[in-house]
Amino acid sequence: MPKIKTHKATVKRFKKTATNKLLQRKAGQDHFNARDTGNATRKKRVDVTVSKTFAKTIHTLTPYN
Questions:
Q1: Where does 1-65 have alpha helices with state H?
Q2: Spans of the chain, pLDDT less than 50
C-alpha cells in the first residue's frame, strides 16, 4: 500500500497536544485590531481546542503528524 499524503496547509494551522487534542489559533489577528475592544483582543491571544467532529477530519488529513 502506498503512503497517505499529508495535507501541508492543515499541518501548518493545527497543533497536536500530548493527549491527541488539536489546537488552533483564533481568526482575525493580522490587522484591523485597533478597533477591537480589549476583551476581544485578549481572547484572540488564546489557542482554542477543535471540536471532536472537526478533529476527525483533521486527523485524516494529517495521518503522520
A1: 8-13, 38-44, 52-61
A2: none
